Amino acid sequence: MSNLQPMKLLFVCRHNAVRSQVAEVLANSISHGKVQALSAGVEPQPVPDFIQEWAGGYSTQSSALSTTSLQEMEGHDFDLIITLCDKTHQALPELSTDTAHIRWDFQHPDNMESLKHLEIELSERLRLMFLAKNLI
């Protein structure tokens, strides 16, 4: 990662339907273009409507969220991969480009209240990480 190129960040959770989607939206919003965040899942499932609705409130999210299989990320270079639950790490196939990996354990939110808690916790961790890397 150079000063001119954004940090390439991949968020992974089991289904790529909630936690990794939320992390992707937040990272792209908080970093103001200094991070290029993507997300993927081991067993992709459809993104729930309440997550689509939530994401629509962010100006960095111009289209509907869609899921991506982790296999589709093979061959992509990432500066950092963040796994968002322990179960996913256990099932995570190795990516040949996986040179830096962080594991964050978050509960799966299933309603707007638990989503708000996830949003707050993820936002704080991302801000701290981006500050430490002089990205914001």
UniProtKB/TrEMBL annotation:
Keywords: Arsenical resistance. It comes from the Bacteria. One of its GO terms (biological process) is response to arsenic-containing substance. Residues 7-132 form the Phosphotyrosine protein phosphatase I domain. The keyword Ligase does not apply. This is Protein tyrosine phosphatase. It comes from Neptuniibacter caesariensis.
